[in-house]
Amino acid sequence: MVKQAERLQKKSKSQRVQQPPVQVNAQQQTETSPKLVESVGSIPSQLYQRLGLAMPRWLFWLLTIVVGITLSGLLVSTLALWTPLWSDIDRTDEELGMDNPDAEKTPLPGEIWSNISQYKLIRPMNILVMGIEPVPGTVDGSPESFAGKSDTMLLLRLNPDDKTIRVLSIPKDTMIAIPESKGLTKVSEANAQGGPVLAARVVSRTLSNAPIDRYIRISTSGLRQLVDQLGGVEVFVPKPMEYRDSAGKFSINLVSGWQTLNGEQAEQFIRFRDANMGDLPRVQRQQALIMGLRERLFSPTVLPKLPQLVRIMGKYFDTNLKVEEMMAIVNFTLNLERDNFQMAILPGIFSRLSADPDSYWLDLTGRVDLLTNYTGVIIGGLKPDARPVTSLKIAIQNSSDQPQLTEKVINSLKQKGFTKIYTVPDLPTRNSETKIIAQKGNRKAAEKLQGVLGLGNIEVSATGDLESDLTIRIGKDWKE
Q1: What Cα–Cα distance (Å) separates residue 469 from each residue in 111, 238, 330?
Q2: How far, in Å, CA of 350 to CA of 366, rounded?
Q3: What is the pTM of this model?
Q4: How far is it, in rounded angstroms, from Cα 333 to Cα 394?
Q5: Which of 1, 112, 329, 335 has the largest CB neighbor count within 10 A?
Q6: 339 Rama sector, left if φ>0, alpha if ψ -120 to 50, beta otherwise
Q7: Start-end ranges of CATH 3.30.420.590 in the chain?
Q8: Where do the DSSP E strands lie in 368-463?
Q9: pLDDT digit string (tens) for 84-128?
Q10: Fold observed for domain 2-223+295-375
């Protein structure tokens, strides 16, 4: 994975980082694997009960088979839950090609940072990132503090072949199968039930056996510390957010508009949950925070402080990334063009029939291109979304100081053959440039729309309107 990967022999604070918990977790997998067949057999019954259907079971199974055969995209998504797993997270360094037996010199920490340009990624790398919910009564940095549910889950794909970093947000309510627990549950439970290896296994299986090379877990305290160490993070708060739990141990109180959040406010921003809207608006805010953090991390004033920041943040992270791999990732990110940092949300649906309306069910219909770009998995026999850009759902949001532009944009697009155009509330901030947001990760479609409009900066993220394929945010540069 890393070119010129000098092996560190110094076992100080980085000892936990450099020693992936493969040996311990491999034993856990050996102990639980005999339960696999029994567990999978119980899943259909749990699915039937969770849907709360009042019909004979034989009719339920008949309809399931017919629908499954008809909807090939959904069929593949469902089969992905049961296929055997392989994940790089429990493979040895030799198997992954990460060992460098020729390494002779043991660099000191200062030398690593001064020679960071020598560390390079030579093949794509998938990293599972989890933000762990607070575990009452634990000490920050202790193994117990990382044993909670994952409040946030991201799959990062760093690809040196096309020089991109792609971030796939996985909603915490995504329904997955954990064979060891004999049934269906939400993906946020995986870390609490079996640690990072189990979490990687179920995510890999759900995403059609996507390889997962490494993991990173960060505690809630870690997020607060990171934001505070960076001097805050600037984000747009879309609306006032107020919440207080029954015990009074956690409260949220944020006003709307652009503002610089401190660590505690950043935690409130990403943990706030909209009523009756599932987890997707919260995922959007997570992506907005990631964009803000990225701007701060790579500002000229912060870059020189990265080594110190890594030392301070060490106890808030748990990872099996090696120091050399971290250096290669930092070097790769430093040389990344802004347009090549892209984000999307795992494609899925909320089932109105489910006993739990917040359950989020994977749906890969027409989204195989997203699976390929964001995980590296290629599924044969399924076609990507080939709809012309004129038939995509286009949301129009005015962020200029000219309210009359909304109608002008709609009329202009209708004249050019666009058929699915709708408006969303104006953004209460003024942008100088028009932005085209590829809400579902389809950059090619955004580029085609850009060609039609003759202007607009493209942003591949899920921060546009949730129902849209593409969102146009009208800026002051729009010509009447």
Answers
A1: 47, 20, 32
A2: 17
A3: 0.77
A4: 31
A5: 1
A6: alpha
A7: 2-223+295-375
A8: 394-398, 421-423, 435-438, 457-459
A9: 333 444 444 444 444 444 433 444 455 555 677 888 999 999 999
A10: Nucleotidyltransferase; domain 5 (3.30.420)
